[in-house]
Amino acid sequence: MARKKILFGNWKMNNTLAEAKAFCAEAETLTAAAAKKDLIIGVAPAYLSLAYVAEHKAGLKVYAEEVHYLNHGAYTGNVSIPMIQEVGAEGSLVGHSERRAYEKENDFDCNLRLKALTKAGMGGIFCVGETLKEFEAGMAEDIIRSQILVGLMGISEADLAHIIIAYEPVWSIGTGKNASEEIAENICKYIRSLIEELYSKKAAQQIEILYGGSVKPVNIHGYLAQEDVDGALVGGASLTAASFKELIENC
Ligand code: PGA
Hints:
By secondary structure, the chain is an alpha/beta fold. It has 13 helices and eight strands.
């Protein structure tokens, strides 16, 4: 089965409900534009907009930005998988570097979330990536290797089919300092080889691997043209329908 190209927006703590509604008013236009390019598109909105966006998605994939691994309990401020499932989300981002940095999530937390999501038949976009210091020390592959070894612990090959991996070098997120196409391709290729080592050649050929970090309408084409980059996880440039449409058109 050939891999699809995917364009996914991570809204982070942006877009109020009113702004999310304005985006959804254009959802049909976006999905029609994406269909012409054979692209799968989706967004991860903040919780307060999740139900609305899932109800008016017009073919968009809708994921949460974060989710707890337990179904319910005394975890003030958290949201569970049954809750996001109930409002129509199909999965969640896992291990975004901002969650790792500000909420102290580690690879074991990611593993619990990925296991819980796949057990519930939901999708997970598992974010990995090195910091600038690690990149400069030539440690990118080692860091990513350990993030993936721990993050995917106990995940079967069948469950891996629900997981997308996003390579997001921390130094390129929201900084305008995007990784070169060559760096993105090399690391995505490395991730694919790791999946072959851990699972099988077939799993490696099937898994979708995205690049994320300062992806804009002007540079998206170059990333998606790389053999092992199956799409992009986009923050800032995914917030408005107009900008999202430009991303699609430039793919
Ligand atoms: P950015 O964010 O496109 O604004 O750099 C990407 C991300 O954090 O997923």
